[in-house]
Specification:
This protein has about 700 residues and is of the alpha/beta class. About 35% of the residues lie in helices and about 10% in strands. Helix 9 packs across helix 13 and helix 10 crosses helix 13. GO terms for molecular function: ATP binding; GDP phosphatase activity; ribonucleoside triphosphate phosphatase activity; UDP phosphatase activity.
Length: about 700
């Protein structure tokens, strides 16, 4: 195994699939290089912006044609991954495809067909590690997505590694996580000690492992609200408008800028359309944001029956949140709608309810024509186009309602908070040192790394590769909050099998050493094969073979001290028969002793793969895989490392090397050597058909 370990995750969302590539030091090297303080930390995961790529549409669109997903979708993503994962590390690199909301809407039969094709295509076209497709290629529930996001947030903020620097009070040092997409929203947090004990059955038990092998255990509450993403919420909102005025063709909408006219799907009205002719209802913006806030509040469904107290939204149970210690970070729409739209207005400020609501109110009260002019002049930044401007008023009202009336986060800027809270952008940049002190902050990146749930998945996987200090240590993963390993416990991936573990250098150890009881079984199997072959030989051949066996053990020879008898059965088995010992002679006439194969370093620890910029010499798995070999050169000949050429020589010894570079075992010289050796031993004379040497030829024995 090389210095670096890599992992590839395909985030299969509803609108597209994004490939993420991560890398980290293998656990042995990380432990050897770590300082005392770092030993208690989780593995350091690295990524790069250029390692990420997204394509459209989502894989759910292949539900009716699953066989097209490989060439039409996956090929581009896997090719991108292969460009950034060193070639020699590919067989040791796990590949995951984890699908979210888009795939959840497909029928189970279509889901299975798509996922099966994904796995088959990846295995057929790449060498990425896929030991268990059910674990590596799957549709994950919203709760799992939220848990991965919680891991990523606390990993980047330092809540795991430096708890003393993130003390929030009452012994609490982790952060809550909020995510909102188009279809669903998630929340994940560790309740305070009182709530954790009261609602222990509702918590998820998470186990990680630091570099030194020490276990890290957390109890996290995670839930998802289906239909509470911004797009699904908008659809429910429009449906309510239509039902309230079924006979009206023009419906006033306070969540749209004044003067804007759109279809019920949210598209601008075009001339000659059904909406313009009064055949279909249209929405007309009034630009009254306060009224928009009032009309979106019922979408929270706070009045829905709560069967398990307490509840927040939609009658779903959530333990009470102690905002003195539970500080949340929000991603996706929480970031895009609160920061990107009004970036120029408060680019140096973190989320402030009072400031944000004032800016949204001012924006949405403008006439649509004025907003169009501002968009063309990039008044609100280059990321704000007409579609974004059209949607922002509803999205902003929805987020504000979810955050403050739904989840109950205090309104920064209006409600009094304990302590002196810093809400500047500098706080975000120094999150690992200071931590977030506000009840809520919207973030996109921390320390230059995108806060994505895929990072949390890879942190969990890398943690599981760290060797435990004892065999009694519990596995890394997550499941129900019960002692030991629960029935629903999920490990991060299939069993890791290093490609070097199956090399031909240690085949004997794998065959015999792991289980000594394999030896008798192996011997019996060989004996059975021999007996079967003996019985199938025919009467005359069995008789001849039996005589040869007696002859081999010396019963047919009167010369008890002869070389023939000393060789005996072992000589026959290893090619030391009664025929003369032929000396291998090269075509030039030189002896075989003058010819040597180049030595091969058998070390499995390849330090030449320290980085993607270094050498890419490596070994791959399997007995039949061509092995890397180097030829002896003259002292004056530059070596591979002296020339700096990035050349990987494969197939040496299989007749695949360039002519004149390495000796070929199946070249003309090798074939002539056998013929020449026989002629030289015969004194330069060719064997006659009746000569003793010809009759004793091993080739003739096979023809009998």
């Amino acid at each position: 195994m090389g210095k670096w370990r890599h992992g590839v995750i395909l985030d299969a969302g509803s609108s597209g699939t994004r490939v993420h590539i991560y890398r980290w030091l293998n656990s042995d090297k990380a432990r050897a290089q770590a300082e005392a303080a770092q030993l208690h930390s989780l593995p350091v995961i690295e990524t790069d912006k250029k390692w990420t790529k997204k394509i459209h549409p989502g894989i759910s669109t292949f539900g009716d044609n699953p066989h097209d997903i490989g060439p039409d979708h996956l090929e581009e993503l896997l090719s991108h991954a292969l460009q950034h994962v060193p070639l020699e590390d590919v067989p040791n690199t796990p590949l995951f495809l984890l699908a979210t909301a888009g795939m959840r809407i497909l029928s189970p039969l279509k889901q299975k067909a798509v996922l099966t094709e994904v796995c088959d295509f990846a295995r057929r076209t790449t060498k990425f590690q896929l030991p268990d497709c059910d674990l590596h290629v799957q549709v994950i529930p919203g709760e799992t997505e939220g848990l991965y996001g919680w891991i990523a947030a606390n990993y980047l903020l330092g809540g795991f590694d430096n708890p003393k620097d993130h003390e929030h009070g009452k012994g609490h040092h982790t952060y809550g996580f909020l995510d909102m997409g188009g279809a669903s929203a998630q929340i994940a947090f560790a309740p305070n000690a009182t709530e954790a004990e009261k609602h222990s059955n509702d918590l998820t038990l998470l186990r990680l492992r630091s570099i030194d092998g020490a276990p890290l255990e957390y109890k996290v509450f995670v839930t998802t609200w289906l239909g509470f993403g911004v797009n699904q919420a908008r659809q429910r909102y429009v449906k309510a408008l239509l039902e309230s005025s079924p006979d009206t063709s023009e419906l006033p909408d306070p969540c749209l800028p004044s003067g804007l006219r759109v279809t019920k799907e949210g598209k601008p009205i075009e001339a000659g359309s059904h909406e313009s002719q009064g055949k279909e209802p249209m929405l007309i913006g009034t630009g009254k944001f306060s009224e928009c806030m009032h009309q979106t509040y019922p979408l929270l469904e706070k009045d829905k029956e709560c069967l398990d107290q307490p509840c927040l939204l939609n009658g779903q149970h959530v333990p009470a949140i102690d905002f003195d210690v539970n500080h949340f970070v929000g991603v996706s729409e929480y970031w895009h709608t609160t920061h990107e739209v009004f970036k120029k207005g408060h680019k140096n400020k973190a989320y402030d309810f009072k400031t944000y609501q004032e800016q949204v109110d001012n924006f949405c009260s403008q006439d649509w024509k004025d907003i169009e002019k501002g968009v063309s002049k990039e008044k609100w930044g280059h990321k704000v186009d007409e579609t974004t401007a059209l949607e922002v008023c509803f999205k902003a009202s929805w987020l504000i309602n979810v955050l403050h009336d739904g989840i109950g986060i205090p309104r920064v800027g209006i409600e009094e908070l304990k302590g002196d809270k810093n809400t500047t952008k500098a706080m975000i940049n120094k999150a690992k040192d200071k931590g977030f002190l506000d009840p809520f902050q919207a973030v996109d990146k921390i320390g230059g790394v995108e806060l994505s749930w895929t990072l949390g998945k890879m942190v969990l996987y890398a943690s599981s590769e760290v060797s435990a200090p004892s065999t009694e240590a519990l596995a890394v993963g997550f499941g129900s909050n019960v002692p030991g390993i629960p029935d629903d416990f999920q490990v991060p991936g299939g069993a890791y099998i290093s490609s070097s573990d199956s090399s031909d250098d240690d085949w004997h150890d794998h065959l015999f050493s792991e289980n000594p009881r394999r030896i008798p079984g192996f011997v019996i199997f060989i004996l059975i094969i021999c007996v079967i072959c003996f019985m199938l030989c025919g009467r005359e051949r069995r008789k001849s073979t039996f005589k040869k066996i007696l002859h081999m053990f010396g019963r047919g020879s009167g010369r008890h001290g002869s070389l023939r008898r000393r060789r005996g059965f072992a000589g026959k088995l290893f090619g030391l028969g009664t025929a003369p010992s032929y000396e291998r002679v090269l075509e030039s006439g030189e002896g075989a002793d003058d010819f040597e194969l180049g030595s091969l370093d058998g070390s499995s620890d390849n330090d030449h793969s320290d980085s993607s910029d270094g050498s890419r010499i490596g070994r791959t798995s399997g007995w039949m895989t061509p092995q890397l070999k180097t030829a002896h050169t003259d002292p004056g000949t530059p070596t591979y490392f002296e020339t700096g050429r990035d050349v990987v020589t494969q197939g040496v010894g299989l007749g695949l090397e360039p002519p004149g570079v390495f000796p070929n075992a199946i070249d003309r010289g090798g074939l002539i050597a056998r013929t020449d050796s026989r002629e030289r031993l015969a004194g330069g004379k060719k064997s006659r058909a009746s000569s003793p040497s010809r009759l004793r030829s091993p080739m003739m024995s096979l023809k009998e």
